[in-house]
Amino acid sequence: MADTMTSGASKLKHRVVRYGDLKPCFDAFIDTRTPGSDQKENFTIIGPGVSENPDQHVHIPEPHGFNIGGARQPPGCTNSQHSHDTAEVFYVHSGKWRFDLGEHGDDAQVMLNPGDLISIPTRLFRGFQNIGDDTGFLWAVLGGDDPGRVLWAPKVFELAKEYGLVLLDDGMLIDTNKGESVPMGKQPMPVTTAEQIGRLQVFDDGQLEACVARSDAPGPRGSFDHLDGVSETHLIGSGRMDWSHGFCVSMLRMEPGSMIPEHSLDQPDVWFVQSGSVAVDVDGEAITLSSGDTITVPRGAVRQISNISDSIIEFIAVRGGDTTPETHWS
Q: What confidence score (pLDDT) does residue 4 get?
């Protein structure tokens, strides 16, 4: 189900998804009843995502060239081994997470903390688990307007069948525990074969660490660095993790009282607030964002960003294209 998008300066609130307003799906994927994976919440914030449940709520359906989603999981909760054909990036908003590569999750591992980012290359089995003591939230970016379907490890199919779930070859999920059955003309998705697995990439720990941007690691500087009290670090694109994603990602930090004056971009521009409160003006309409909120600013719109608090604010910016778009100052 999708929210209705409306345009115009008076409708800026419809381009904001508040953390407290996120609508989760508890049965988005084939592993939703597998013990250890049965408590995860899946969110589709922008675009259709890769959910296997047609009733997954889509907050903003407008095509951007990439998708934004999220996963919230309690301690010990696991997302099962799977692969994507488009880019998959996770930014850690909260919690302590372990990412495991390989069919059985034992090829490579890396730990991430709040503020860390990981870009997992395509056609590579990955899974992740909240290994912290509190519920954690991952903010995710998927490549393309249609990020395709998930390729699951064979064991995932076996466990799903035990708990009444069947994945169809068109990517839809059937719940036999609810009395659902495979429709006429439809077939269950075949279990992933050894040949398919053999065509996937295999990474070691060193290769996986090269896919991580730590919160305190230096990186290429951005186009806002000339502004007093503002710093921008490129995380994806523009010289760092520069393999093709279809989008680029930067981290911005703003000191109290600092401002990014009016400017526009020719690409979609999505921000996620990691910490603090951000005052935003888009085409003359003002709104304040808080930790965990997401906003999408239309291409060509004039935007201004201010830190009106007494502490540093941090937010992630995702822009369309493989290189940072040119900033048009007003």
A: 39
8 A C-beta contact, residue 260 and residue 327: no
Over 80: is that where the pLDDT of 73 sits? yes
Band the pLDDT of 196: cuts 50, 70, 90.
very high
In sequence order, the β-bridge partners of residue 288 are 279
- For 27, phi then psi, to 5°, come to -135, 55
Quote the CA–CA distance of 126 and 114 in Å, as a whole number: 20
User: Helices in the chain by DSSP H: which ranges?
Assistant: 154-162, 194-198, 205-209
Determine the Cα–Cα distance for residues 23 and 70; give it in Å rounded to an integer: 10
Query: What three-state secondary structure class fits 261?
Result: strand
Cα–Cα dist 268/298, whole Å? 6
SS3 308: coil
In the three-class reduction of DSSP (H, G, I as helix; E, B as strand; rest coil), residue 106 is classed as coil
Instruction: Quote the DSSP letter at residue 188.
Output: B
Q: Which two tokens stand for residue 306?
A: 């201010």
C-alpha–C-alpha distance, residues 317 and 64, integer Å: 13
DSSP structural state of residue 153: P
Question: If you search the block for the tokens 């964002």, which residue do you land on?
Answer: 289
Residue for token digits 């800026």? 12
314 and 274 Cβ atoms separated by less than 8 Å: yes
- Rounded distance between C-alpha atoms, residue 220 and residue 180, angstroms: 52
Decide if 161 contacts 122 (C-beta within 8 A): no
The sheet with strand 313-320 has its strands ordered as 16-17, 294-297, 269-275, 313-320, 247-254, 230-236
CA dihedral angle for residue 66, residue 71, residue 77, residue 78, rounded to 10 degrees = -10
